[in-house]
Structures are given as structure tokens and as C-alpha cells.
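If you are new to this repository, start here. Below is one unmodified record pulled from the training split, so you can see the exact layout before writing a loader.
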Amino acid sequence: MRFDLTEEQQKLKEEIRSYLDSHITKELLDELKENPDGGPLWRQYIKELGEDGWLGIGWPVEYGGQGRTPLEQYIFLEEIERTGVNIPFITLETVGPTLMKLGTEEQKNYFLPKILKGEVEVAIGYTEPQAGTDLASLQTRAIRDGDSYVINGQKVFTTNAHMADYIWLAARTDPDAPKHKGISIFLVPTNLPGFSVTPMNLIGERSNVSYYDNVRVPLSALVGEENKGWEYITTQLSLERLMLSTYSRMERMIEETIEWASENEFDGVRVIDQPGVRDNLAELTVEMEILRLLNYRAAWAHSNEKSAPYRPSMNKVFAAELNQKVFDTCMQIMGMFGQLETGSEWAVADGYAPENAKRRLVYLFGGGANDVQRDLVARFGLGLPKS
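And here is the target side for that same chain:
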């Protein structure tokens, strides 16, 4: 089967790119450089994306979307990624679709329209100090008390918890059940008494430790059914892995490197004509095309076939390692110019390489460490026994 964009989808891609180019101003970029979490211009930008109907182009009309396909939603994601200006990706691309599939009607009707308007941001509360790659070993507890649950515990790497409205929290509701069976998911408002965060450094960027000290949430905070949380976790993580597999920022880096190498010389010879440069760029382009088609295949599969849980894991591993390869190779081609940050008149590729080098490392463990993903591919894709 051939996976490529139809003429209509290609036009959509061009329309989205044109829209984003007209809305991402120098003032917005300057604001984000000073405050990566986003200020008033960034919030206005997100609001406009929602008001103009772009955030949920692949979501059902009843929740405020355009009713297009998951592949078209993925096209939007790639074009957003290409700009380098973040949106609430986790909320829009993982939490929202999981709620759409597994949440209660009340939760769908309340949260989904707000997500598409850019009015709600959700952070993920999974990892604990003693439960990292073995997520099912988590110990945060949620105990039923009348018409509430009382939550106690601690999470690490709760990225964006300091600016989120809710935490998508995994907690143990049945301590006597097998560890994969006694977990539930809660949407915990961050303004409740007993909830707090402290910053933690994640490769030069802020993440958080989040604390739950007798946090009391209503029964309506329970997502779906009690003790079904492992299914909800794997659904959300599968979407997150596809989200982390985007190719467009790599594509832009390659394009800008080719442009620079075609216009600059070293010892009287264009950089693009130097031994190895052209071959390296061609190899990166081919591998990026493979990733593009893998991602189209995975996005298409959301609505066209039974879920294959290994595909997002496979794509995520390939993308994470290709990401490293693309940025490292392009920086080597650009030499010292590749180390100049945005704002320098000599900067190449909008300063992507030096300013985002640390972020590339996050892809190696975001959504689950690559070694764990390889194990999932081996078990579910190749049918190998669990080690």
C-alpha cells in the first residue's frame, strides 16, 4: 500500500503552513526566547489557533473539531512542529484523544471543547522516584472516602505541572491487585489544597516534582472506570510516542543546512561539494522520508485497522535516533557556524542546533526509554517471548 498525501491533503498542508507563517511574529518569537513557558502573546496565539478551528481538525465536530481524519490531524502536528513554536501537545494530541475514547460522557463534554479552544492544559503524572521504566510499580495511592478520593504520593518529571490546569495522574486504587490491575487515572485540578510542585532540572530545561498530600478529588475526577488505568496509560503513551516521532523539524534543519552549504565555500569549494557532505545529506533525506511514511502509516491506522501497539514504539525509536543523527550531522557540516544562537547575524538554521541540542536528548526517553520500546516491538511486532 502506498502512503502519501492526496492532492487535497497537500493543499491542506500548504494552507496550514501559510496560516502559521502569518501568525508567528518576531514579537512572539522574542517573547518565547525570554520566557519559554509562554507569555501573553503565546497565549493569544494558542487562542487564535483554537478560534480559527485548527487545533482539532481531526476531531469530531460535536467537540468543536473539523471532523477530518487522524492523518489530517497529524499533518497539522507536523506543520506546528516545523515552526519550532510549541503548543500544548500533550493535552491536544494524547490526553484529549484518550478521553475521547475512554472517558465518561461528562468528561468528554466538559474537557474536549475546552482543549480545542486552548483553555485547558494537562500535565502527565506517571513516573515516581522508584517507578521509572517499571511504571506499574507506582505507589501513589488514591483511597475512596465517601464521594471523594484522597490522593497521597509523589511524581517526578511532571513536565509543565507548574503551568497546567490538571494532572493526568496514575494512582493505585487497589493495593492488593496485581500491579498492572490496581491502577486508576484521575484528572487532578492543580488548584486543590495539598497539591504542590518544585522545579527540577531536565537537561537544562525545567521539569517538576509534584506532590500530593491528602489531595481530595471528587468521584468525577476518575477517568473512565476504576482499576482500568493501565489501559488508559498505554493508550495515552501510544499517542505520545507518535507525537514524539515527528520529522518536520529535522526536515527544516536539513533544508536550511543544504541552503547554507550551497551558498558558502571552504578553501574555494562550495561546502555542498565537499567530500562526504552531499552523501551525508542524501542519506539523512532518505531516512527522513522513511520516517515520514512510517508516521503516515501509523496515523492512518488509527481509523482504518485494528491497533498495532508496536508501531508507535517502532516509530519513536527510529525518530529519536534519527533526530540525534540529523542535528549532529548538520552541526558538523556547518562547523562553528552551527554553534551560533538565534539573534547572531551569522546564525544558521534559526539557531536550532545549539539551542535545542539538549532537547533532542529528551526524545531518547520521553514516552518511554528506547530500550523499553525495542522490547515492545520485539514482543508485539515480532512475537518474541518476554525475557
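Two things worth knowing about this chain: Residues 167 and 188 are 5 Å apart (CA to CA). The chain has a mean pLDDT of 88.
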